[in-house]
Amino acid sequence: MSPPTNEDDQRGELTVSRVVDAPRDLVWQAFTEPEHLAAFWGGPDITVSVESVTMDVRPGGSFELTMVASDGAEYPNRGEYVEVDKPSRIVFTEPDTGITATITFAVVGDKTEVTIHQVGVPERFLGPEAEAGFAATFDKLEALLDRWTDG
Amino acid sequence: MTLTEERLDAAFSALADPTRRAIVTRLSAGDATVKELAEPFTISLQAVSKHIRVLERSGLISQGVDAQRRPCRLEIDTADELINWITEQKQRWEGRLDALEAHLEQVRAVQVQESSE
């Protein structure tokens, strides 16, 4: 698994990886069963009730849930499974944001490495030529923003 | 789509064109007039103006009201927003993994308790 690079950031892609202290089967369960997913999908600050979760974990199937922020604001989250390869890989898309995320689960001793690779920029904006130029523009913009915030 | 997402789409879409990227890159070095921006290109001033209008609509650049020069300027907020969005997406996953670890710890603690009963 390649580590996250600056290049990824510049192309609007991102990679996040973590070794969690649990066997792979359990981690797979966590991502594919409503009662587990609801417990962590919102992160530390957002609540997801088990009742709001529906999921049909197979290619072409979808998931839907409601995230509730601490101020009570509700955010629906829905996605569609593109690939489901038990117990090592899930790919899903979110039609609302245009992102595609690939989650892989790798055995590391008695632990599991979870890696998320997300294409954060809708694909239609990224032809091979656009990608190269996009990276260059981001370089310049980032340098500029650094100057801006320093000054 | 939210307003932010619409703006992001417009901005990314605008940046997919090489001429427009060159314009944005040039403006990151400082404000410039349409004429100055057109200089390095072989295309007409009119074509450059068209690209500038697309960039303006996307919120990436703005054009001054000074009737004589009307200099173009890079809009830092939009550029900032693009980069922030990616950072936020990353934080969202990090937060999810934090919560996942806490949840798994709980599940395993219950499993250990059950197996010892």
Provide the number of structural domains of chain A.
1
Write the CATH fold name of chain B. Answer: Arc Repressor Mutant, subunit A
Mean residue pLDDT of chain B: 83
| Overall shape of chain B | rod-shaped
Order of helices and strands of chain B: HHHHEEH
End-to-end separation of chain B in angstroms reads 51 Å
**What is the CATH class designation of chain A?**
Alpha Beta
Describe this entry's structure for a reader:
The complex is a heterodimer of chains A (151) and B (117). Chain A is 29% helix and 37% strand. The N and C termini of chain A lie far apart (38 Å). Chain A has 151 residues and is an alpha+beta fold. The radius of gyration of chain A is 18 Å and the shape is globular. Chain A has helices at 6-10, 24-32, 34-40, 128-150, and strands at 13-20, 47-48, 54-55, 62-68, 74-85, 89-94, 99-108, 111-119. In chain A, strands 1, 2, 3, 4, 5, 6, 7 and 8 form an 8-stranded antiparallel sheet that branches. In chain A, helix 2 crosses helix 3. Chain A contains 4 helices and 8 strands; from the N terminus they run H-E-H-H-E-E-E-E-E-E-E-H. In chain A, strand 5 (74-85) and strand 6 form a beta hairpin. Chain A has one domain: START domain (Alpha-D-Glucose-1,6-Bisphosphate, Chain A, domain 4), CATH 3.30.530. Chain B has 117 residues and is mainly α. Chain B has a single domain, classed as Orthogonal Bundle (Arc Repressor Mutant, subunit A), CATH 1.10.10.10. Chain B is built from 5 helices and 2 strands, in the order ααααββα. Chain B has a two-stranded antiparallel sheet. In chain B, helix 2 (18-27) crosses helix 4. The longest helix of chain B has 41 residues, at 76-116. Chain B is rod-shaped. Classes of the chains: A alpha+beta (151), B mainly alpha (117).
List keywords for this structure.
heterodimer; A: 151 residues; alpha+beta; Alpha-D-Glucose-1,6-Bisphosphate, Chain A, domain 4; eight-stranded antiparallel β-sheet; 37% strand; globular; disordered N terminus; B: 117 residues; Arc Repressor Mutant, subunit A; two-stranded antiparallel ribbon; 70% helix; rod-shaped
